[in-house]
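Tokens in:
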């Protein structure tokens, strides 16, 4: 057991759990360096659709990345993070028999302009056939604070339903719970020190605000699935060939 019974109970009750000091700062710096190198290549090869999807709009500088998809599939350094024994032992305490990573994303959230991520539920995006079958491990590559845009969670919403989501016409990737429903759920900030991990259940409502600080808030979200889980009602297209099996 990697998580204490109290930590596991907190996850099941609140729908999220923060664990500090899972990775060293040096490991996070190496991951950031790898993400930056990958990002430079990616930006150089972007087409118009990629520019809409992947670039941050609110930042003054051109070609600042908002996110990169599938680092665990594409980058050995991120595959090693996702397969880290300590992290996997924690994941195994939260979902039965973790089998793989269905999707992963690096969120860059640059200083002075990294935009907000509206309230949403990962189970709406992925549509798994078991509500308890997926957990997101959000690894803080930088310290995440209320100033630079840490995650906020709707405590206990993991025990509620998956709500229909809507998307603004100019941002189809930004599926979100309609504002009137979102307003019914108070959101608790979850700061995470660099190298810590914030876990959340697939039904847990969560969001992040914009980065108003002069510090980066980079993180990698690793979306694990348990054995026997299939994405039966996904809201976006998730390429099965890019699922990464564990072990
Ligand atoms: O990092 C963010 O701002 C959003 C992360 C997120 O929505 C997730 O990890 O599911």
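Residues out:
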């Amino acid at each position: 057991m990697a998580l204490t019974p109290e930590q596991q109970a907190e996850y099941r009750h609140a729908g999220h759990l923060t664990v500090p000091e899972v990775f060293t700062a040096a490991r996070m710096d190496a991951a950031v360096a790898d993400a930056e190198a990958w990002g430079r290549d990616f930006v150089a090869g972007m087409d118009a659709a990629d520019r809409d999807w992947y670039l941050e709009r609110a930042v003054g500088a051109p070609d600042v990345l908002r996110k990169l998809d599938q680092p665990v599939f594409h980058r050995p350094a991120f595959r090693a993070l996702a397969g880290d024994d300590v992290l996997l032992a924690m994941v195994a305490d939260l979902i039965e028999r973790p089998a793989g990573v269905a999707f992963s994303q690096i969120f860059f959230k640059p200083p002075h302009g990294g935009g907000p991520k509206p309230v949403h539920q990962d189970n709406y995006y992925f549509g798994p056939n078991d509500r308890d079958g997926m957990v997101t491990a959000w690894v803080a590559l930088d310290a995440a604070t209320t100033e630079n845009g840490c995650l906020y969670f709707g405590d206990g919403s993991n025990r509620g339903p998956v709500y229909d989501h809507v998307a603004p016409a100019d941002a189809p990737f930004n599926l979100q719970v309609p504002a009137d429903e979102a307003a019914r759920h108070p959101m608790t900030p979850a700061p995470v020190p660099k190298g810590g991990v914030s876990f959340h259940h697939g039904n847990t409502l969560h969001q992040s605000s914009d980065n108003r600080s002069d510090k980066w808030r980079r993180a990698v979200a690793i979306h694990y699935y348990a054995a026997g889980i299939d994405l039966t009602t996904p809201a976006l297209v998730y390429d099965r060939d890019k699922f990464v099996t564990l072990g």
